[in-house]
Amino acid sequence: MADEIKYEYKTVRTVRGTDGMVISKMQKDGWELVEQAQGTLRSTLNFRRPRKPIPRLLIGAAAAVLVLIVVIGVANAISAGGEKKDEPDQTAAAAREEHSATPPPAVPESAATDVITPQNNPEFAALLKADYCDDANLDLRPNTRVRSSRSTVRS
């Protein structure tokens, strides 16, 4: 039973007269013509070719890697679950105490004046007040007319 060859099958329908081209193309791809049924306008061609063997060694190696990953994950979860997470680390608590004891760095006063606002910069205030949608921009398109899509042409 292990020496038995397994085949995959394919059925192709062609216009009558093009059978020869289809048969030669399929034979180049490794298919073998099994049956040819002639119809009035169409022909049905049945082909077969030996099925490629399943790479069992590759599947076995992939399964072994998957099992190994699961075992490592479970072992890591068990070892991490044994530790108490509620107790903070002694070194982390000491570092927090040292950090809170040092005063925060002073902010230079010049940094506060570097922020541009309309109150401290008149050029910025003028930019904010300018209206770019006024009539001054209409001269950029002097000969254009707006047409609505609902307008109809009458003759």
TrEMBL record:
Chain segments annotated as transmembrane: 57-78
UniProt name for this protein: DUF4177 domain-containing protein
Protein source organism: Luedemannella helvata
Keywords noted in UniProt: Membrane, Transmembrane, Transmembrane helix
Stretches the record annotates as Disordered: 81-118
Top-level lineage group: Bacteria
